[in-house]
Amino acid sequence: MLSQNTRVTYSGTGRRKTSIARVRLIPGSGKLIINGLPGESYLQFSPNYLRISCAPLKILGLNKEYDIYVKAEGGGLTGQADAIRLGLARALCTINPENRIALKSEGLLTRDARIKERKKYGLRKARKAPQYSKR
Protein backbone atom coordinates (compact mmCIF):
# COMPACT_ATOMS: atom_id res chain seq x y z
CA MET A 1 0.00 0.00 0.00
CA LEU A 2 1.25 3.49 -0.86
CA SER A 3 1.60 6.03 1.91
CA GLN A 4 0.06 9.50 1.63
CA ASN A 5 3.44 11.12 0.94
CA THR A 6 4.28 8.89 -2.03
CA ARG A 7 3.54 10.56 -5.36
CA VAL A 8 3.15 8.42 -8.43
CA THR A 9 5.33 9.66 -11.28
CA TYR A 10 5.57 8.46 -14.86
CA SER A 11 8.59 9.30 -16.97
CA GLY A 12 9.66 9.25 -20.59
CA THR A 13 12.64 10.46 -22.60
CA GLY A 14 12.34 12.22 -25.94
CA ARG A 15 15.03 13.20 -28.43
CA ARG A 16 15.02 15.36 -31.57
CA LYS A 17 18.05 16.74 -33.46
CA THR A 18 20.50 17.45 -30.60
CA SER A 19 17.81 18.04 -27.95
CA ILE A 20 17.01 15.67 -25.10
CA ALA A 21 13.94 16.07 -22.90
CA ARG A 22 13.33 14.07 -19.72
CA VAL A 23 9.61 14.28 -18.97
CA ARG A 24 7.93 13.43 -15.65
CA LEU A 25 4.14 13.23 -15.30
CA ILE A 26 2.55 13.67 -11.88
CA PRO A 27 -1.22 13.61 -11.33
CA GLY A 28 -2.24 17.24 -10.85
CA SER A 29 -3.86 20.28 -12.41
CA GLY A 30 -2.22 20.42 -15.85
CA LYS A 31 0.71 22.84 -15.40
CA LEU A 32 3.80 22.64 -17.59
CA ILE A 33 7.21 23.36 -16.00
CA ILE A 34 10.32 23.28 -18.22
CA ASN A 35 13.74 23.67 -16.56
CA GLY A 36 12.09 25.31 -13.54
CA LEU A 37 10.20 27.93 -15.60
CA PRO A 38 6.53 27.97 -16.60
CA GLY A 39 6.21 26.28 -20.00
CA GLU A 40 4.67 29.33 -21.66
CA SER A 41 7.58 31.61 -20.79
CA TYR A 42 10.24 28.97 -21.57
CA LEU A 43 8.73 28.40 -25.03
CA GLN A 44 8.52 32.21 -25.51
CA PHE A 45 4.70 32.25 -25.47
CA SER A 46 4.69 30.64 -28.93
CA PRO A 47 1.31 28.96 -29.52
CA ASN A 48 2.96 26.65 -32.06
CA TYR A 49 5.57 25.30 -29.60
CA LEU A 50 2.95 24.94 -26.85
CA ARG A 51 0.60 23.08 -29.21
CA ILE A 52 3.40 20.73 -30.33
CA SER A 53 4.55 20.04 -26.76
CA CYS A 54 1.09 19.21 -25.39
CA ALA A 55 -0.26 17.35 -28.45
CA PRO A 56 -0.27 13.86 -26.83
CA LEU A 57 -2.37 15.08 -23.88
CA LYS A 58 -4.82 16.83 -26.19
CA ILE A 59 -5.31 13.71 -28.33
CA LEU A 60 -6.04 11.56 -25.27
CA GLY A 61 -8.19 14.27 -23.64
CA LEU A 62 -6.00 14.46 -20.52
CA ASN A 63 -5.21 18.22 -20.70
CA LYS A 64 -5.84 19.02 -17.01
CA GLU A 65 -5.09 15.60 -15.49
CA TYR A 66 -1.29 15.70 -15.09
CA ASP A 67 1.41 18.18 -14.17
CA ILE A 68 4.35 17.98 -16.59
CA TYR A 69 7.89 18.54 -15.33
CA VAL A 70 10.55 18.64 -18.04
CA LYS A 71 14.34 18.86 -18.04
CA ALA A 72 15.28 19.89 -21.58
CA GLU A 73 18.81 20.38 -22.83
CA GLY A 74 20.62 20.88 -26.12
CA GLY A 75 19.46 22.24 -29.44
CA GLY A 76 16.94 25.02 -29.94
CA LEU A 77 13.29 25.51 -29.11
CA THR A 78 11.98 23.55 -32.11
CA GLY A 79 14.06 20.48 -31.25
CA GLN A 80 13.18 20.77 -27.58
CA ALA A 81 9.45 21.11 -28.27
CA ASP A 82 9.51 17.97 -30.44
CA ALA A 83 11.61 16.12 -27.84
CA ILE A 84 9.08 17.08 -25.13
CA ARG A 85 6.27 15.75 -27.33
CA LEU A 86 8.00 12.37 -27.77
CA GLY A 87 8.89 12.09 -24.07
CA LEU A 88 5.33 12.97 -23.07
CA ALA A 89 3.89 10.38 -25.46
CA ARG A 90 6.23 7.70 -24.07
CA ALA A 91 5.30 8.61 -20.49
CA LEU A 92 1.59 8.37 -21.34
CA CYS A 93 2.19 4.86 -22.72
CA THR A 94 3.59 3.76 -19.35
CA ILE A 95 0.43 5.04 -17.62
CA ASN A 96 -1.93 2.99 -19.77
CA PRO A 97 -0.87 0.64 -22.61
CA GLU A 98 -4.18 1.42 -24.37
CA ASN A 99 -2.88 4.97 -24.97
CA ARG A 100 -0.25 3.52 -27.31
CA ILE A 101 -2.79 2.74 -30.05
CA ALA A 102 -4.14 6.31 -30.25
CA LEU A 103 -0.67 7.91 -30.04
CA LYS A 104 0.86 5.55 -32.61
CA SER A 105 -1.89 6.26 -35.16
CA GLU A 106 -1.13 10.00 -34.81
CA GLY A 107 2.61 9.34 -35.32
CA LEU A 108 3.60 10.70 -31.89
CA LEU A 109 5.69 7.68 -30.87
CA THR A 110 8.07 7.91 -33.84
CA ARG A 111 11.54 9.33 -33.20
CA ASP A 112 12.42 11.81 -35.95
CA ALA A 113 15.88 10.58 -36.95
CA ARG A 114 16.85 13.58 -39.09
CA ILE A 115 20.03 15.17 -37.75
CA LYS A 116 22.49 17.67 -39.19
CA GLU A 117 24.78 16.14 -41.79
CA ARG A 118 28.49 16.48 -41.12
CA LYS A 119 30.68 18.90 -43.06
CA LYS A 120 33.02 17.24 -45.55
CA TYR A 121 36.62 18.13 -46.33
CA GLY A 122 36.98 20.52 -49.29
CA LEU A 123 33.36 21.70 -49.10
CA ARG A 124 31.89 24.80 -47.46
CA LYS A 125 29.04 22.91 -45.75
CA ALA A 126 27.87 19.32 -45.89
CA ARG A 127 27.21 19.49 -49.64
CA LYS A 128 27.87 23.07 -50.77
CA ALA A 129 31.02 23.18 -52.88
CA PRO A 130 33.10 26.26 -53.69
CA GLN A 131 32.35 27.85 -57.07
CA TYR A 132 33.86 25.86 -59.95
CA SER A 133 36.38 27.72 -62.08
CA LYS A 134 37.13 26.28 -65.49
CA ARG A 135 40.45 28.17 -65.96
Describe the protein's architecture and organization.
It contains 5 helices and 5 strands. The chain is α+β, with helices and mostly antiparallel strands and 135 residues long. The protein has a single domain (10-106), classed as 2-Layer Sandwich (Ribosomal Protein S5, domain 2), CATH 3.30.230. A hairpin with a 2-residue loop joins β3 and β4 (37-38). The chain is elongated, with a radius of gyration of 19 Å. The protein starts with 9 loop residues before the first strand and ends in a 30-residue tail after the last helix.
> Number of folding domains?
1
The CATH architecture category equals 2-Layer Sandwich
Which class of secondary structure composition applies to the elements?
A: alpha+beta
Mean of all residue-level pLDDT scores: 92
Question: Which CATH class is shown?
Answer: Alpha Beta
Contiguous runs where pLDDT drops below 50 for at least 5 residues? none
Helix content range of the residues, please? 25-40%
Give the biggest beta sheet.
5 strands, mixed
Write the layout of secondary structure elements.
Blueprint: E1 10-16, E2 19-27, E3 32-34, E4 37-38, H1 39-42, H2 47-53, H3 55-60, E5 66-73, H4 77-95, H5 99-105
Parallel strand pairs: 3-5
Antiparallel strand pairs: 1-2, 2-5, 3-4
Task: Give descriptors for this structure.
single chain, 135 residues, alpha+beta, five-stranded mixed sheet, Ribosomal_uS9, Ribosomal_uS9_CS, plastid, ribonucleoprotein
